[in-house]
Amino acid sequence: MKRIQSKFVTIKDIAEKAGVSPNTVSRALNSRPDISQSTKSRILKIAQEMGYVRNAYATILKSNVTNTIGVIMSDSSNPFFSEVFKGIDKAAQEKDYQIIIMNSEGVYENEERFIKTLLERRVDGILLFPMQESYEDIRELVKEHFPIVLVGREIDEWNVDEIFSDEVKGGYMATKYLLEKGCKKVKMITDQLYNSASLGRLEGYRKALQEKGVPFCEENVKLCHHIHEGYHVQAGYDKVIEMLQGKEEFDGIFCYNDLIAYGVIKALKENGFRIPEDVSVVGYDDITFSRLIEPQLTTIKVKKFEMGYEAFQMLYKRITAKKSSNSSTRKVLDVELIVRNS
Amino acid sequence: MKRIQSKFVTIKDIAEKAGVSPNTVSRALNSRPDISQSTKSRILKIAQEMGYVRNAYATILKSNVTNTIGVIMSDSSNPFFSEVFKGIDKAAQEKDYQIIIMNSEGVYENEERFIKTLLERRVDGILLFPMQESYEDIRELVKEHFPIVLVGREIDEWNVDEIFSDEVKGGYMATKYLLEKGCKKVKMITDQLYNSASLGRLEGYRKALQEKGVPFCEENVKLCHHIHEGYHVQAGYDKVIEMLQGKEEFDGIFCYNDLIAYGVIKALKENGFRIPEDVSVVGYDDITFSRLIEPQLTTIKVKKFEMGYEAFQMLYKRITAKKSSNSSTRKVLDVELIVRNS
DNA sequence: ATTTGTTCCGTTAACGTTAACGGTAATAAA
DNA sequence: TTTATTACCGTTAACGTTAACGGAACAAAT
User: Fold this and answer.
1) Which residue, B146, B168, B185, is CA-closest to B315?
2) Where are the domains of chain B?
């Protein structure tokens, strides 16, 4: 890399120095036919010496292929998302695709803005982790058959590719486990109730209760309203304190995710509860740290890496499909109960 | 967004429909002077209807400003890095800069490749977290005064902007704490010894020993060779098992980072050691989870967010500097001992 | 009436790269 | 010798956008 007054060397500069046409230089750099071996190596040498670096913008503008996808998630530092992202990254690298990742922080306006930026950058497709109540921003994309795959959430109404976990089964298994362990009063701590993950897990919760003949009580479902990204732990902690202050009774808690469970466990321990003797706790996701905390967290294992890996595969299929089909693919990933000590 | 046979609408298409020149459309879209209000709104309406999305590649090629920086780290899912990244992201958003992030996984070849890609994408500057033994790949960048800031590591030899923690102080405080707590045999578990972080912390370790009159023993420093990203916990765990099998005696362990400490604590607990009664453990970084594990981890707090935030500021200064100066900035961040229960 | 200025829009060229086409010289085939 | 073939390279134009310049039309000032 060399620059003259912070301007990069162009193909034209090389051509001039080598005494050939710009196109010949292009031929040499892209190892195309129609060029002699001698001039080719001579040009490559000069290019090397001059510190030539291809201008991706010119190339892409000309060729119209970016080999880039966009990924929009709410918080890539969240262990769940970062694990899924690894799957995406792996799959993308295998197909030699670039990734532009953006963190919406769960804010709809950011999501809108990011989508616009990604389209301006002519990404071939988008992987979106829906986190909002509204999906207006992607309505047109779907309508126009722009390659897009929704990850981790299910949107019934639309005809769009999706990959997500069997949330009902997860909620069911978690709750059933608590009930069969002897818990009589099982609370559920969840966040927003407008997405398929929360709703599915809640449905599983109800299903398990019903199966065991336990009446469902609205008050046992605790909603954490709009958890600011990075504050799930705090939200779980606060909810327990709130419940204790309200003198509510419980001997089992099913948490929307592991991070909330961490906060729950912290609050319980600080208030003298033994886990699992006094209160049993079940999390969701099975992120790395869940086997490191004390007690080790019983949780629902989600196939995070697979979710990311498969999501890219689905998107790739869309991108490389000859014609845009009207039918969409929905992939459901199985979940698993991991019994530990909580 | 609308496309005709997966081709986007161009400014020319709009011009044709509106019966004006392409340049007039450009004027309307970029709200420049030299255009009447009536035609402007008319064009904007048509553009809206046709679903126009600006082609960033054409704009950038013409204007030559990308407002983009590249960030290369080894593993953005590592809590330490993701925290630093948040600082970068915040600062970048404030200046309306885009970020291209790449995970090298600590592999030199990846780093080389990524730098090339970033240059092709004409980033205005690069934030690099050096993880390798060799720095050859950035030598030319530095020589050519390409805006670059090294984050988290110190490279003495070169004249390059750097921001890093006071590693010697961190290692010193951690070790001193263990010694003053009464530990007689303090081990240190670290990783590669060729970067400034490891070396600095080791120097601090030695300094504290010396100050307390404890002889330094080479065997007390345990090296984890080439920890694969994401396996720090396992590495710490393995080292303790190894030490126990070797019948080594110790009552204090200073870990290179919190993740290693987690593994150390897990191994100790599994083998019946009480923490901190039998063995005291001190980590490094103070990532979020360190106050959630049992026992809560005593550690050295590093200003992660600030590191990222400041790193961008330094890079921004370089980018916007009128002329490339030969002098470089080195910023050292203070560290802090957080005493908890380990 | 002439000059000056202003408003608004079109024309041209350029950013860096590359595909399509054409042309020249040398070589092989007739 | 003539023709066809091949190897190699240059010319031109285009990708989508925008800066620089120019010019027409009209209003205001002299």
Assistant:
1) B146
2) 3-62, 65-165+304-332, 167-302
The pair of structure tokens assigned to A196 is 């398929």
Distance, in Å, from the CA atom of B176 to the CA atom of B254, rounded to the nearest integer, reads 10
Which backbone phi and psi does A304 adopt, to 5 degrees? -70, -55
Task: Name the residue closest to the C1' of C9 by its CA.
Answer: B24
Of B83, B120, B324, nearest to A53 by CB-CB distance is B120
> For the domain A65-165+304-333, what is the CATH code?
3.40.50.2300
What does the pLDDT look like over B14-56, one tens digit per residue?
999 999 999 999 999 998 888 999 999 999 999 999 999 999 9
What is the distance in angstroms between the Cα of B251 and the nearest Cα belonging to chain A? 21
Say whether the CB atom of B61 is under 7 angstroms from strand C.
yes
Q: Which nucleotide is nearest to A14 (CA to C1')?
A: C16
Task: Report the distance from CA of residue B21 to the C1' of nucleotide C11 in Å, as an integer.
Answer: 9
Do the first three CATH levels of A3-62 and A65-165+304-333 match, i.e. the same topology?
no
**Best interface-test mutation with A: which of B55, B89, B265 has the largest number of A CBs within 10 A?**
B55
Express each pLDDT in B199-230 by its tens digit.
999 999 999 999 988 899 888 998 887 677 66
Say if domain B3-62 classifies as CATH 1.10.4030.10: no
A148-152's contacts with Cβ under 8 Å and 24+ in sequence apart are A148/A315, A148/A318, A149/A125, A149/A311, A149/A314, A149/A315, A149/A318, A151/A84, A151/A127, A151/A307, A151/A308, A151/A311, A152/A84, A152/A197, A152/A307
Using a CB-CB cut-off of 8 Å, the residues of chain B touching A98 are: 117
- Tell me the backbone φ, ψ of residue A323, rounded to 5 degrees: -125, 150
CA distances from B340 to A62, A89, A102, B180, B260 (A): 59, 37, 35, 15, 17
Beta bridge partners of A333: A165
Q: How is domain A167-302 classified at the CATH fold level?
A: Rossmann fold (3.40.50)
Q: Render pLDDT for B62-71 as a digit per residue (tens, 0 to 9).
A: 999 899 999 9
Query: Which residues have a Cβ under 8 Å from the Cβ of B183 and sit 6 or more positions away?
Result: B251, B252, B280
Interatomic distance B12 CA / D16 C1' (Å): 8
